[in-house]
Amino acid sequence: MSVFSVEFVIADSELGRRHMSETSGRWLKGCALGCAGVLVVGVLFLVGMTFSLRSIFDDAHQDREVLVAQHGENDAFVPAVDGTVPSDRIEAFLAVRQALAPVCAKVEGVDREMGDFEELADDGEPELRVALPAVFRLTKTMMGLPWIFGEIERVRNRALVDADMGLGEYTYVYVMAFHDQLLDPESEARLFAGSATNNRVREDLVAMLRRQHEAAVASSGVDGEWLSILEMEVATLESDPGRIPWQDGLPEQISMCFQPYRVAVDQTYSAATAEFDLLNSTVRGGGLTIEMK
To answer: pTM of whole model > 0.90?
Structure first.
């Protein structure tokens, strides 16, 4: 029998950081994980489910090929010399985020359900008639997560094609638009928390700023003070692997770009999906392994 496996890099996510009470929820946690593990493995090995899941990623990959053909790979995108984002590109970004709203709502629903499950465990050892339905509900939810992650990529890529925006530009605008939310110390869901996935996104962003600086140097009439600021930011990023672009605050000209759209942009941010929004899948072994990073 062919082996099908799916690997998602979500170790640092809010969903992955939900913990049960060690004193009151040990039995419930063990039951949930045991049931979920057995059922998930069983379902993933079913051929029908395999094809169902693979079809979502096939659609995402087809649109990604269109994006690469039209806009190039991520390393083809160069931000404006001053880092600003034109209004029409912010509007294109908003169109993509609005298309993703229904999928984000699904992930937020999963997040709430896991929070309810944690509260059930924290309240003490629950009665069997209460615990079993909760376990089965959570198991069903966990079984559906791979499809939801695939849907995020599929819907995003299709919306990007429709909005005529490449993946590289989307990554840059995403981090500039949601800069404050991503750095909020009160947020438990952090896009840049040290995982391989987050490191990949950060490396893409550092390379973008490096190309931005190179373009600024090659351009005539660029303010010398801005050149120095940009050069220092790139150097700091390269020397500090834990830093993200403009960690000390967005330059005013970039922040002002989003001011007229601030309310609309903020409404499209989802902390529950922040670590998944920029993932790309890779299909290996003739489709027998799907890895997201």
So the answer is: no
